[in-house]
Amino acid sequence: MAAQDVILPHFPELTADQLQQLDTIASTVWEWNQHINVISRKDPLVMERHVLHSLGIAKVVRFTEGATVLDVGTGGGFPGLPLAVLHPECQFLLCDSIGKKVRVVEAAAKAAGLTNVRALHARAEDVPGAFDFVVSRAVKRMAGFLEWVDDKIKPSHNHPLPNGVLYLKGGDLTEELSEVDAPVTTVELKQWFDGPFFETKKVVHVDLSST
C-alpha cells in the first residue's frame, strides 16, 4: 500500500514529496530485504507495520528545528528514516552493529533523497556525541537498553517532553518497566492508529534529562 493511503490520513500536513519519500523508503527496504534480512519476509505490509509504526513517535512529540536524534539498532532504518522524512529540519544518526543493515539504510536514505540522515556501523555504546532523543524499536529489554544510551542524552531540552528515550514496543510492559530507575511514561498507539497490529503497541518515553 502507498503512503497516500496509509500515512496521509494520520499526517495530513505531509507534502507530495514527503509521501513519495516514504514510498521510496518502503520499496527500497523491501527490495533489499529479499537479499538481506532486515525485516520479516513474511510481512509485506511495510507501510503499515514499519513506516506508520515508526511515525507513532511523532504522535507523542514533534522534534523542534535543529534537534538531534539517534536511532539505535535501526535495522532497515526504522524508526529513523520515516521520522527523518517528517522532520527535515532535524539531524538523524542511525546506527546498527550489523554492517549489512547499515548498507540498507544508506541505500534507502539515498534513494529517498534524505540529506538529514547519517548511517553508522557501530554499537550504541560506541556512538560519539549527545542527542536530544534516542529512538528505537524493541531491540533489548528496557533496563539493558538504557545502560547503552544513558550517557547519550543532552541535559537541556527544547521540547514538551524532557530529553530521553522514545521506545516502540508492544505487549504488557509492567514487569519490564518496573526495572527502570527513571521517570517513564507509556502512550498507547491505538488511540491514533486502528487495526489489530496496533492494539498493544506503545511508545515508551524515559526521561533521561537529569541522569
Please outline what is shown here.
This protein is an alpha/beta fold and 211 residues long. It is 33% helix and 19% strand. Strands 3-2-1-4-5-7-6 form a 7-stranded mixed sheet, with helices on one face.
Describe the structure.
The chain has helices at 3-6, 16-33, 46-60, 80-86, 99-112, 142-149, 174-177, and strands spanning 68-72, 91-96, 117-121, 133-137, 164-170, 184-188, 201-207. By secondary structure, it is an alpha/beta fold. It has a 7-stranded mixed β-sheet with strand order 3-2-1-4-5-7-6, covered by helices on one side. Helix 2 (16-33) crosses helix 3 (46-60) and helix 2 (16-33) runs antiparallel to helix 5. The longest helix is centred in the N-terminal third of the chain and has 18 residues, at 16-33. The radius of gyration is 16 Å and the shape is globular. The model has no long low-confidence stretch (mean pLDDT 94).
